[in-house]
Amino acid sequence: MELSCKSEYAILALLEMATNYQSGEPLQIRQIAAQQNIPDRYLEQLLATLRRGGIVKSQRGSKGGYLLAREPWKITVLEILECLEGLDVRICEENINTKTLDSSVIGDIWQEACQAANSVLQKYTLQELCEQRDSRRQLDIMYYI
Fold first, then answer.
1. What is the DSSP letter of 27?
2. Residues 135, 34: Cα–Cα separation, whole Å
3. Phi and psi (nearest 5°) for 78?
4. Over 80: is that where the pLDDT of 92 sits?
5. 16: pLDDT strictly greater than 90
6. Residue 63: exposed, middle, or buried by beta-carbon count in 10 A (0-12, 13-18, 19+)?
7. 25-41 average pLDDT score
8. What would the mean pLDDT of 48-75 be, rounded to a whole number?
9. How far apart are CA 32 and CA 26, in angstroms?
């Protein structure tokens, strides 16, 4: 399984919003793009997809921008990837139409791999990603002292 550029940029943008979640202030696309080094126009498309998926909400006006639609501890990485990539967890759970014994063995292994990946992605929330990032920042600071 490979993390697409689209998903990586979206998760970076969502981390930026999660970091500012407590302020309640929306972030403008140009702010997020500058902070995370994401092309503005691409980010605009990603945020539109995330808005349609119910992960972010937009606010219009001069002080408008984007906010998380829910608390960062309620948004999982799996949910983000499902929204962006169109991943469907049920695909892994369905029995693969097997024609041979060999196909059956491959199908079982693929199903197990999908379930393991989904389990890991479901386990992590935006809040936990922020905490891991902050923890690593503290470690980096200690190395430079």
1. B
2. 23
3. -60, -45
4. no
5. yes
6. exposed
7. 94
8. 93
9. 10
CA dihedral 69, 75, 77, 79 (to 10 degrees): -70
Residue appearing with tokens 């689209």? 6
**Phi-psi label, residue 25: left if phi above 0, alpha if psi -120 to 50, beta otherwise:** beta
Confidence of residue 83 (pLDDT cuts 50, 70, 90): very high
Tokens of 122: 């479901």
As given in the structure block, the two tokens for residue 32 are 């997020």
Residue 68 is predicted with a pLDDT of: 96
CATH of 5-144, picked from 2.60.40.10, 1.20.1250.20, 1.10.10.10, 3.40.50.300, is 1.10.10.10
| Crossing angle of helices 5-19 and 40-52, rounded to 10° | 80
Q: How confident is the model at residue 87 (pLDDT cuts 50, 70, 90)?
A: low
CB distance 56 to 68 below 8 Å: yes
Confidence band, pLDDT 50/70/90 cuts, at residue 110? confident
**65: which strand partners?**
59
Lookup: tokens for 116: 């393991």
Rg (CA), the chain: 18
Alpha-helical (H) ranges within 1-88 are 5-19, 29-36, 40-52, 77-85
